[in-house]
Write a structure and sequence with these properties.
The structure is a homodimer. By secondary structure, chain A is an alpha/beta fold. Chain A has 2 domains: 148 residues, Quinone Oxidoreductase, Chain A, domain 1 (Alpha-Beta Complex), CATH 3.90.180; 172 residues, NAD(P)-binding Rossmann-like Domain (Rossmann fold, 3-Layer(aba) Sandwich). In chain A, β9, α6 and β10 form a beta-alpha-beta unit. The longest helix of chain A is centred in the first third of the chain and has 15 residues. The N and C termini of chain A lie far apart (45 Å). Chains A and B meet through α8, α10 and β14 of A and α8, α10 and β14 of B. Chains A, B: This is L-erythro-3,5-diaminohexanoate dehydrogenase. Chains A, B: InterPro entries: KDD_N, NAD(P)-bd_dom_sf. Chains A, B: Pfam families: KDD_N (PF26370).
């Protein structure tokens, strides 16, 4: 009988001791699975953009050298984690074997085509052969095996849409799913950075959840992109503004909500110093949701105190139950959103 | 009739335009108040420790030079914000005048002795004369006036306890007040960094709120200090552990909660890399509360996703309604806590 491993995969950490797989320098990539692991026959690696760029430059843009570098990293670490950037990426593959302890607990069977939604930087991987490297989309096609831990998250790739379309949406699955769970009918919602990939999905989801009595207001720098949101009814109102200018954003935002402060503000802006623009327009007792990786913890914490705002500030968690399903559903039900995604991100 | 200013004080920002008073380089410290401002007759400035140390070193520990430097900063900026560290501090004073628009809205009258709980880095200040500088406690006694904006937070200094005791507690008022509001009867609560000033107050408050059916577990490095918490019943159980070692902390923490994951974890540790130790022991749907300024936003966000934890992660807000009252109440009702505070922090 097979052994049961730690649900977080610490049983595969070789060094340093006592850390989680993501922080480890070397993990065990023996492909004989534990009782609570999933073995995946890997089709392709989608390398994180920062990581791929670094490797490509180090290799002087030579495809063969890029391949050798990737093989070296995986042989050395047991996972595809770029030692310079620390980042990984995700993979696409077919489920080959599911450990007995998991079989009846999860909605997955051998043969299912999945994308992993945990980082390659913590995923045991063994590459037999690199088949092709598509430099324009940071994709490496391989003959390889990988292992998903019990805590590992994944999405079954839907059969009713283009794979790259699904991947583009799954890439930002956390944010719209959190919006779906948090926003209630009648809420007023301000979305900062609303014209990006994540922003559009959040706006669409917020519209669905507040309706018909709420108010969703979108803001971003780009006037034209905001027109697109308005035209497609992904928001009730929109204004162009610089999220680094809190007073201006607050004044415009309040104007668009009948002078009242908002129940919820969602930050998906990808520049720094936008914390105050997110905090100021929200009412006492309201929620400020930071999904931007450019958020500064101390600027948010000290900023809210400085203006005496009794708001709950939440760190955007990339994972919440059902996040992949909620996100893909948006593309299924909105032809407009799907068309925009196909045009911009596929 | 007097004019009404912005509740956040932007009407006093001189440069750069469009920012909040904290981010401003120069604010207007004219002591003729607006309709919604409070004029304070200042007794003493408690300079932020990082700021005082920097000024003291620049002045070669010469008291007179320290005083001159402080005068210069305030003349230049209209507020006591150290240009090197960016930080401020707080002040103690007596309310001199309250603008008409505020008079009936707030629980304050002329003659009340208060401590401001917003930073000096955003408070209009005009110093007439420095009376004394107490280098051992970073305190500057002054003849000065200051202004509190409508959004400014403050605490009336209690008459039933030593002023320095009250200040020591008010300094960390946010954390225990958030615990008071968040923790429910029956909850299991893990407190990381429990033996510090903030940690002890959080533990005491958690005990009060979970009782008698909950479980409060304290952890920190210092065995001896944990004994003090146990002896005084500020927690049900305690274990010594290094919060930078997530697997170890998780295993010990689960042991102390009957193998179950926690409803809430509170991080008041003051070292880096303790995010995962806070996230791992919490159940799906539970709350992870980061109160440490050493928290990394990205480590928290990516870390929770990496282990597939559907937890709500909250950025500790130093302000919540009634925070000063909740915190001072702890010292009133617990003789044990008061004695520890008097010994360690006064």
């Amino acid at each position: 009988m097979k052994k049961t491993g730690c649900r977080y995969g610490t049983h595969r950490v070789i060094s340093p001791e006592g850390v989680l797989p993501q922080a480890a320098l070397k993990i065990d990539n023996d492909m004989d699975i534990y009782d609570n692991e999933i073995l995946v026959d890997v089709i392709a690696l989608n390398i994180d953009s920062a990581s791929f760029t670094q490797i490509e430059e180090e290799a002087g843009h030579d495809t063969e050298k890029i391949g050798r570098k990737i093989m070296e990293i995986v042989e050395d670490r047991g996972k595809m984690q770029n030692p310079v950037t620390g980042s990984g990426g995700m993979l696409i593959g077919v489920v080959e074997e599911i450990g007995d302890a998991l079989k009846d607990k999860i909605d997955l069977k051998a043969g299912d085509r999945i994308a992993t939604l945990v980082s390659l930087s913590l995923t045991p991987l063994k590459i037999e052969k690199i088949m092709d490297i598509k430099k324009d989309i940071d994709r490496v096609e391989v003959e390889a095996k990988a292992i998903l831990f019990e805590s590992g998250i994944y999405a079954k790739l839907p059969k009713d849409m283009n794979e790259n379309l699904a991947l583009a949406a799954l890439d930002v699955a956390g944010a719209p799913a959190q919006v779906a769970k948090m926003v209630k009918p009648g809420d007023s919602v301000l979305i900062l950075g609303a014209t990006g990939k994540s922003g559009m999905m959040c706006a669409y989801e917020a519209m669905k959840r507040v309706g018909p009595t709420g108010n969703v207001v979108a803001t971003d720098l780009r006037e034209e992109a905001l027109e697109l949101l308005l035209k497609n009814r992904f928001c009730h109102k929109a204004f162009s503004g610089d999220a680094r200018k809190p007073v201006e954003v607050m004044n415009r935002a309040l104007e668009m909500n009948g002078g009242r402060e908002y129940d919820i503000a969602i930050n998906v802006v990808n520049v720094q110093n936008t914390e105050m623009s997110t905090i100021l327009p929200v009412r006492d007792g309201g929620i400020v949701y930071f999904f931007s990786m450019a958020t500064s913890f101390t600027k948010a914490a000290l900023g809210a105190e400085g203006v005496g705002k009794d708001v709950t500030m939440v760190v955007g968690n990339g994972y919440t139950k059902g996040h992949a399903e909620i996100t893909l559903q948006e593309l299924r039900e909105s032809e407009a959103l799907r068309k925009i995604f196909e045009e911009l991100y596929v």
